[in-house]
Fold this protein.
Amino acid sequence: MNVIKRSLFALPVVAAFALGGCSNMTQAQQRELSGGAIGAAAGAGITAIAGGNPIWGAIGGAAVGTLGGFLYDKHETGN
């Protein structure tokens, strides 16, 4: 039970630091980070539903999502 209380306390603290670290990012960095996060969540979910190891799905999804965010930024900026 003590571990659960520590986790519930640590989660908002870690989230606050993580979100505070994203405040000075460029538009390209934000797009890549968003793509990676969405890809990781989707990859983990799909892999878990399919019966595989969600960690590998998250890693693959994050890689594909980050690349997608990068390519989308290049498309939007015209480079």
User: Anything to note?
Assistant: The chain has three helices and no strands. Residues 25-79 form one domain. The radius of gyration is 16 Å. The chain has a mean pLDDT of 83.
